[in-house]
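Protein: Structural maintenance of chromosomes protein 5
Species: Catharus ustulatus
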Amino acid sequence: MADAREKRRAVLKVGKHNVSQSPFVVGSIVRISMENFLTYSVCEVRPGPNLNVVLGANGTGKSSIVCAICLGLAGKPSFLGRADKVGLFVKQGCMKGTVEIELFKSPENIIITREIHVVNNTSVWFINGRPATLKTVEEQIADLNIQVDNLCQFLPQDKVGEFTKLSKTELLEATEKSIGSPEMYQFHCELKNFREKERELENLCKEKTTSLEKMKQRVERYKQDVERYHECKRHVDLIEMLERKRPWVEYENFREQHEEVKQYRNQVKKELKSLKEMQAPWTKRIQEAEENLRNLDMKTRDNTAEIRSISQKCKEKQDALEMKDKQIEEINQAFRMKKDEETNRQKKIHQTQVIIEEWQNELDTMAVCENLQPQIDAVNTELKKLQEERANIDNDISDLRADKKNQEREEKRIIDRLGQLNNIMHMKEENLKMRFRDTHSALMWLRNNKDKFKKKTCEPMMLEINVKDSSHAKYIENHISENDMRAFVFECQEDMETFLLEVHDHQKLRVNAVCAPAESYAGNLPSRPIEELHRYGFYSYLRELFDAPPPVMNYLCYQYRVHDVPVGTQKTRDMIEKVIQETGLKQIYTAEEKYAIKVSSYTKQNLSSNVCLKEARYLTSSVDTDERRQLENRGQDIRNTLKSLDVRLTVLFDRQKLLEHKDNKLRHEKKALLERGNRRRQLESKISMKHDSLRQLEQDAIDLEKEFQLANVKIKEINKQKSELVTELMHLMKKIIPLNIIKVSLTLQTTRATAEKNRLQSEYKTATVQLRAAQQRFHELDNKKQLLYEKCIELMKQARQVCRLGPNQDFPEEFQVAFQTLPNTLEEIDAFLNEEKTRASCFTGLSASVVEEYNKQTQEIQQLTEYLEGKKNELNNYKQNISQVKEKWLSLLKVMIEQVNGKFSKFFSSMQCVGEVDLHMENEGEYEKYGIRIRVKFHSSTELYELTPYHQSGGEKTVSTMLYLMALQELNRCPFRVVDEINQGMDPLNERRVFEMVVDTACKKRTSQYFLITPKLLQNLPYNDKMTVLFVYNGPFMLETYKWNMKRFRKRQRRLSRMSE
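Structure follows.
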């Protein structure tokens, strides 16, 4: 081994070297240099070309070398699983750290340097001492086929468990990248892309073919409509030409009528002139007769006016006589009313006397009023007592109602608050459903099947844990693993196995479950009271920051020691060195960081690591279970109180009704007593009032004899006035008789004059009728001529407008030719027009848009056909490409899997176990679902089972992972592989077997570099001269780097050997 190291050093001293002569593979790590990086201030590691066993106790810095390789080769911090910020990898107290990796390459090595700055978590890159960008570094690393993000090549300590969680597809891609030829993974990617394109093209072609068929069907329907449209167009054109000719024909008809009417009008005008000359003498005689009639009419009107005046005076006298008769009748009527009034008075006097006699008899028969006052006082006393009792009951009812209202308000407040708490629980369940759907499905099954379990079962911890202050949720979530946060908690192992059998084996759900220890840990006290830690900024232990059911708290105290992990503030962070040195705590939390402290097995000094706290995701919404329990108890008490209040109110209401009934009864008794005492006084008062009324009636007596004499005197006076009126009326009648005789004479003269006038007018009328008829005929013909002229002008204008002719434009020859083929009369044109319109109306629902749409659809069909043909050709090309690439890829893939399976099976056979690696595919055409399936069998009595995160034990998964990586080692084209502490889960027998395989495989000639990181090795293991063992020590007694001198060590060794001889 020493000679090998000397040879390696000699090779490294040469500036330029030949790849074929070097034991290193291109891309292997020649040197790792760290400065202010994690636990190292300054450190340089020079690994060998084959197997490198990095050995050292826990906490000495082995994994720091792994972190340096990852970060120095452009890896992301998240891949290491330790921290999410690169600045956290700088040694505490320093502002900058450096990692330098030297990679083997011909003719000169590549040196990649990364400076990490704590401020803003930034990095500066160098290649061979020259500044470079991250992209340039990544390209250099990719050229050397280094893949620090591939678990098949780089398996850090915190990612060992994730290898078995890789899906078959992910494992295939990682294996292709790791050991396959460059074109293999490229072929795989091309196949997936080609297949995706093929699907898209198939769907597109199918969709376009369907669209094309629909368009063809639609165009076929349009074709019939287009033919019907053209036929309709011919009828419409003919209709339009007929409508153009019709106004010209109509105009010509009216023009001919106008000429005929004009000639007849001129003839009638001549006849009218001769008739007017013949009628002049008759007009003069008729005018003389009319003058005589007017004179007679004036005399008749004067005579009639005088007669009317005298007649009016006669009428006035007659009206006065009638008025006197009415006055006499009114006097007689007044006397009769006096007589009736006296009769009614006598009847009322008699009735009043009868009533007084009856009341007097009742008063005489009534006994002297007994003394009712004691009875009335007794009733009043009872009423007062009842009123006092009713008032007390009303007060009690009012108080009870107020209490009930207060209790109901309190109950509503409690219900609202419980609703808010239930909403918070619902939000937590929705969060669980969104993040862990299988866990939520198992939760629903558990709630419906709790009767199948013997002891209490707890739902996932993220639902059961209630943080008292949401700002503390991040401490709980960073302390408890995510797997346990979504784990169900059981009190007995049998219940947990029943649950897992159902959800794992039957429902195929990926859920976690834990069993709380039988012994109670929830009541354990912390190692020291929190008061002693106040001076360091600590204010509580984790257990005091949340509530949980007893099984959950018992498990957390046992597994995570939440009762003994304190939580501090920024003050704690500021004095963290003092806290670590003085308190001896293993885990602590500051405001934003988590610290883990270990004690070195060699130096006994404290070694600390810290990570930034991640933001809480599950426990930000919490429910105070104590508050909820108190609210539910308080709500039950309120409901009981309300029932009691309702019972008491019912009793009081019944008592109130009874008292009200008694009160009404006593009031009726009091009213009857009062009425008995008041009856005598009422009778005496009524009799007195009736006597007064009787005296008034006797005083109102009427003297009928006297009234009769007064009426006769008035009647005699009126009769005297009537006599005078009759004398005056007779005198007027004598004056009116001569006037009537004159009126009759005038009437006869008027009749003779009227007859003479009528005779003259009759003779004149005959000639006038002829004249008027001639005038009427002339006016009618003149009006008709004018109307026809206007109609001709209007029709001419319409005809030119219909034909779209200008004012001075000549009639087109094409219209003349077209009009010659059409009918020449309006009747024939209208008949022809109706016939054509009837035919055109049969073509309904057609428009020019149908032709446009038909042409457009035809063009689209042609374009779509060409487009579809191109896509089908493109699809055929893709299918040919897929067939060619698939053949190349499958041939390479099957060879690779056969080789891996051969190595893997061989390694398992050497351990008396069985292991197989095969190609898994769900559908031959779905290349994105191709994967590698690993099946193992560790016991002869079992069958081959697929390697999953759940079926095999931790040691079996570790062995399977290690042997798969070893199977890749000889086939690997990557320059190096890193495996960190993978042997920790193995039993001694498997660990020895695996180590032997690692040495045998990694130390073969021209294999890639291998890093095996482990804190321990078994005794008497086989070693090889080609392997390099790097011991990692750390502590205050180590030599400084600049004091390390290998020549002095060897010289001292030879001197000691000679002395011993």
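Remarks: The longest helix spans residues 704-802.
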